[in-house]
UniProtKB/TrEMBL annotation:
Family assignment from sequence similarity: Belongs to the CFA/CMAS family.
Designated name of the protein: Cyclopropane-fatty-acyl-phospholipid synthase family protein
Origin species: Streptomyces bangladeshensis
Pfam family, one: CMAS
Keyword Lipid metabolism listed: yes
Keywords: Lipid metabolism, Methyltransferase, S-adenosyl-L-methionine, Transferase
Domain Polyketide synthase-like methyltransferase stretches: 156-394
Length: 430
């Protein structure tokens, strides 16, 4: 009798202590749950073993990346309701261990083990990066982490990002396109930095060169862009040459800690500081401070998480760490501002553009889904699934105010105290 879906629903609801708001479809063709709801498809018993051997987010992620778990219907709806059942409740191995003290839950777990088949842990998908979490944020480990994320093929990123090739939050108008919103974001950064013809700009984490090209072409500045990704650098250099800007833009494969040819009039760091790490953040801030002329400006564009009551309990998201941004860390906005001030900066403006990132991510997901078969050919089915999941889940996280993104304008204010800012700097909003 085909009844795996009914058994799964009953067992899952016992383990979670809450009803499942999605429909379940199992490998034997059985279905159970609201007929008009999106479906969670368990394609084989291996999906169960993945979740049993790694309870919580990582087990679910492995099942998804491997293709053992599918979603039929609206991806965002399923992720949103599952967040309340799993991610936000912290259903990790420790939480399950506490739940197993209940005799009913223990019985459900035993039944789930029987249903899962042979008690052999499946190998993690090959897209998962596996390394010890020690000696983080050395030059070597940072190069490896950046390569894992960015060196997956420029053609793949062209599908996701579109012609702008900007991999950070856009700045939207109601009727804007992704390309116009990314152009407006780059211009917003340039205006906040007060760029003038003949100045020098350092673009830290320059990606595929979009900021460097925009600043040089539209504002007449000379730009040094640094990245740890070989593929990004090659792509950016070609774009610079095609634009006829080789006399004003230099793209380097270089760690920001190794930049010694300052001073610069301005520094942009857009979506890079998340890779720095808490232990290195003050070093990062001091390095950028030292590279600026007195009166020089830093625009730090960075994702932030919400502060915790006990910050010592903060843990990196296991899915993001294992599949997306190895060794990446998010800090609360207040921590970032404090570290910049400790380095000597005067923080003059903080602008939250959280809703803009949600809209950007939804656009990237749509781009990926529209050219899915080609994206899979360029990378792998697992890699494409990683990007779809992380971008969709991140869009919801921004929409629900679980994470935010902020542009922080900071100045190396000279001893005279003259900041160089207009009395009403917010005129850049028009």
């Amino acid at each position: 009798m085909a009844d795996a879906a009914q058994r799964l629903r009953s067992l899952a609801e016992q383990l979670l202590g809450a009803p499942l708001p999605v429909r379940l479809r199992a490998w034997d063709g059985s279905q159970d749950g609201p007929p008009d709801a999106p479906a969670l498809v368990v394609r084989n018993r291996r999906a169960l073993r993945r979740m049993l051997f790694k309870p919580g987010e990582l087990g679910l992620a492995r099942a998804w990346v491997a293709g053992d778990l599918e979603i039929e219907g609206d991806l965002y709806t399923v992720l949103d309701v599952m967040a309340g059942l799993v991610w936000e409740r912290g259903e990790d191995a420790r939480g399950l261990g506490e739940a197993l003290r209940d005799p009913g839950v223990r019985a459900a777990a035993r039944e789930l083990l029987k249903l899962a088949g042979p008690p052999i842990p499946p190998a993690p998908p090959r897209e998962e990066i596996r390394r010890p979490r020690r000696n983080l944020h050395t030059r070597r480990t940072d190069r490896r982490a950046i390569s894992h994320h960015y060196d997956v093929g420029n053609d793949f990123y062209e599908i996701v990002l579109g012609p702008s090739m900007v991999y950070s939050c856009a700045y939207w108008e109601d009727a804007g396109t992704l390309e116009s919103a990314q152009r407006d974001k780059l211009e917003l950064v340039c205006v906040k930095l007060g760029l003038k013809e003949g100045q020098r700009l350092l673009d830290v984490g320059c990606g595929w060169g979009s900021m460097a090209i925009h600043a040089a072409r539209e504002h007449g500045v000379s730009v040094v862009g640094v990245t740890l990704s070989q593929e990004q650098a090659a792509y950016a250099r070609k774009r610079v040459a095609d634009e006829g800007l080789t006399d004003r833009v230099e793209i380097r494969v270089q760690d920001y800690r190794d930049v010694v040819d300052g001073p610069f009039d301005a520094i942009s760091s857009i979506g890079m500081a998340e890779h720095v790490g808490a232990e290195r953040y003050l070093e990062y801030a001091r390095q950028l401070y030292a590279l600026l002329v007195p009166g020089g400006r830093l625009l730090n564009h960075q994702i932030a998480r919400r502060p915790q009551r006990d910050e010592s309990t903060y843990q990196v998201d296991p899915f993001i760490d294992s599949y997306v941004f190895p060794d990446g860390e998010l800090a609360p906005m207040g921590t970032t501002v404090t570290q910049l001030e400790r380095a000597g900066f005067e923080v003059r403006d903080v602008e939250s553009i959280r809703e803009h990132y949600a809209r950007t991510l939804r656009r990237w997901v749509a781009n990926l889904e529209a050219d899915w078969d080609r994206a899979v050919r360029l990378t792998s089915p697992g890699r494409a699934r990683v990007w779809r999941l992380y971008m969709a889940a991140s869009a919801l996280a921004f929409e629900r105010n679980r994470i935010g993104v902020n542009q922080v304008l900071a100045i190396r204010t000279p001893e005279s105290g003259a900041s160089g800012l207009p009395l009403r700097p917010r005129t850049w909003h028009g």
